[in-house]
Amino acid sequence: MAASGIAGYLLGTIASADVAASLASNGQADLRSSGSANPGALNAALTLGKKWGAAVMVADMAKGAVAAAVGRGLAGPAGANLASSAAVCGHCYPIGRSGGKGVSTSIGQVLGTFPVYLPLDIAVGVATAAMPKWTQRTWAATAAASVTWVGTSLLAFRRAVPTGIDGPATVWLPVGSLISSSIIAKRFLDIPLVDGKPRDDDGVPAERNDEQVRSDDDDIGVHRLDQPTEPS
């Protein structure tokens, strides 16, 4: 079991966003000082372009799914859940640098431990993020998806629902979902405020409107690398 956790954590620490930033900009872009300052898929899309953002999202999801596969090989379903939870921890809290928020890696965890639940997980997140009253849409969607993920995992365990990969759910499914959801919630709460207000996913105070954000892009130093710049 310990080997599963260690392997999962190490997989989670792979800096997908940093690799993408280096490849996209010849080492010039730093996602921790651009956009939302978060080394994750959304900030990669904002700073590097949508294709790079998608690549980071897929890579981060793969970390959670691969960790589950490695953990399963080492210690069965318990190892799969432990390793994929540890991958989320490694993504959010790597040693020696700041980590991402863990959202994509947790989706990979779902894919690797409870794939039949994945459509509901995505649907809850998308539906919550689409609600117009939310200013912190990523946080709202993640919170809703996390609560649903933990609750559904617990229900699946109590009713011995097939997971789609490991047979009937064991107690390790809700344990793993609770661990990763708690880590992600802690990571979101760690994000510093801007002028005493929470930042939205574009790295600016959430209460500012879209027109203000667009007009201030140059002032806050946000430039998408896939868009041409105006000649000076």
Describe the structure.
The model is unreliable at 201-224 and 228-232 (pLDDT under 50). The chain has one domain (2-215). It starts with a helix and ends in a 17-residue tail after the last helix. The protein is globular and about 50 Å long. The protein has 9 helices and no strands. The chain has 232 residues and is mainly alpha-helical.
Short description:
The protein has 232 residues and is mostly helical.
Question: What descriptors fit this protein?
Answer:
232 residues, mainly alpha
* Mean pLDDT across all amino acids: 83
**With helices defined by DSSP (H or I, 4 residues minimum), what is the helix count?**
9
The backbone outline, from C-alpha atoms, is globular
Low-confidence stretches: 201-224, 228-232
- Structural class computed from helices and strand pairing: mainly alpha
- Helix fraction? 55-70%
Helices and strands, in order, run as HHHHHHHHH
Q: What does the largest sheet look like?
A: none
Strand content: under 5%
Output the radius of gyration: 18 Å
Number of strands: 0
Cα-to-Cα separation, first versus last residue = 59 Å
Whole-number count of domains: 1
Topology diagram in text:
Elements: H1 2-12, H2 16-25, H3 41-48, H4 50-92, H5 103-113, H6 118-129, H7 137-158, H8 172-190, H9 210-215
Helix pairs in contact: 1-4, 2-4, 3-4, 4-5, 4-8, 5-8, 6-7, 7-8
